[in-house]
Amino acid sequence: MPTYGRLAVTFERGEGAWLFDKDNNRYLDAVSGIAVCSLGHAHPAVHQALCKQSEKLVHTSNLYGIAVQEQLADKLSEISGMDNVFFCNSGAEANEAAIKLARKYGHGLGIDFPSIIVMEKSFHGRTLATLSATGNAKIQQGFEPLVEGFIRVPYNDINAIEQVLKQYNNIVAMLVEPIQGEGGVNIPASDYLNQIRRLCDQHNLLMMLDEIQTGVGRTGKFFAFQHNAIVPDVCTLAKALGNGVPIGACLAWGKASEVLTAGNHGSTFGGNPLACSVALAVLSTLESSDLINQASQKGELISAKFREQLRANSHVVDIRQKGLMIGIELDAPCTELVQAALEKKLLINVTGDKNIRLLPPLIIDDQQITLLVDTLSALISMHTDTTHES
Ligand SMILES: Cc1ncc(COP(=O)(O)O)c(C=O)c1O
Question: Which of 85, 170, 280, 389 is most buried, by CB atoms within 10 Å?
């Protein structure tokens, strides 16, 4: 089905931060398959895990014990400080699990119509429940009736949450991205998550973080919430967890970890031996390297270079960055930049029409950083000169 507006390029192979088309043209990948291939393409640890595990066992279903799934759950619990994990195959499914968990938690409290606070400009996926939670009318349009039970407030506005909490008595959870990705790399106040934690504790709500884009080292910590020294009740992961092999996870802590019980939720493929062994290889590669720390340094270097090169450009509204999640906001739509960059053999993304979003792999090196910043700064200058003149 024509559900994607694809660019006119097809890649045949990859190597680190590079992708190659059928004519062997080399492209610098500053998108990483939308925050997925953080270790780069064709990483040997991923390759080895795929080969080794597929020689032994690919899939058995969750009717039986899966040792490698248990190991992965233990590892994620150790890293997060949370108690248990449900595995699935995508980000939307991980959020579905979180939404179901929140509703069941509410019913357990005797709330018949449990509601979840969600944010404007958020993105949580394309299934019916997750698109209903998403704060973007374009994504919802045509799919009504939406799933009920979401109350929306502006992002990064604690006062708005406090008002809603005064108004309703059926709220059971909040679902929040620590940094909004699709929404345009929106970085909230540094204590935003701490304030949300405080309100959730005060009102007995589940604090649920969607770390599908921010997780697995992207922001300079394994989880973005670790910048705030808090633990959420529920946290969802997907994307970079399998470096391209589909896997999603919904982690729970404390009272949230006791909500879903046998028969409440499931997935045929979820947490199968193949996906889990790759995810374990991703985690051990991150653990034995300095890549997560480097994400902070590299991201700061990239944003400093952009600030330097674009400082005289009055059409650049803002440059936002946390780790290797980088947004450059222009004062006018700039989706054409994606094609212009492709012609320069650079892969970038534009979200919300005016926000250039960069999600380079964590393994990007200094030369590639220079190439990225020089190429894109020149393109932005050309673009803003032309749009300004016309
Ligand atoms: C924050 C966030 N949540 C959920 C999703 C949905 O993930 P998936 O496309 O794997 O279903 C995405 C995907 O971009 C995302 O960025």
Answer: 85
Give, in order, the Cα–Cα distances in Å from 180 to each of 52, 128, 208, 242, 357: 36, 20, 14, 21, 11
For the entire predicted model, the pTM comes to 0.98
Closest-CA residue, ligand 1 atom 10, reads 91
For the chain, give percent helix, strand, coil, nearest 5: 40, 20, 40
| Tens digits of residue pLDDT in 215-239 | 999 999 999 999 999 999 999 999 9
Tell me what the mean pLDDT of segment 103-113 comes to: 98
Catalytic residue flag (residue 123): yes
The type of residue at 157 is: D
Residue 59: count of CB within 10 angstroms of its CB:
12
Pocket test for ligand 1, best of 212, 225, 322 (most atoms within 8 A of CB): 212
Nearest CA to ligand 1 atom 7: 91
CA distances from 139 to 246, 314, 364 (A): 22, 31, 32
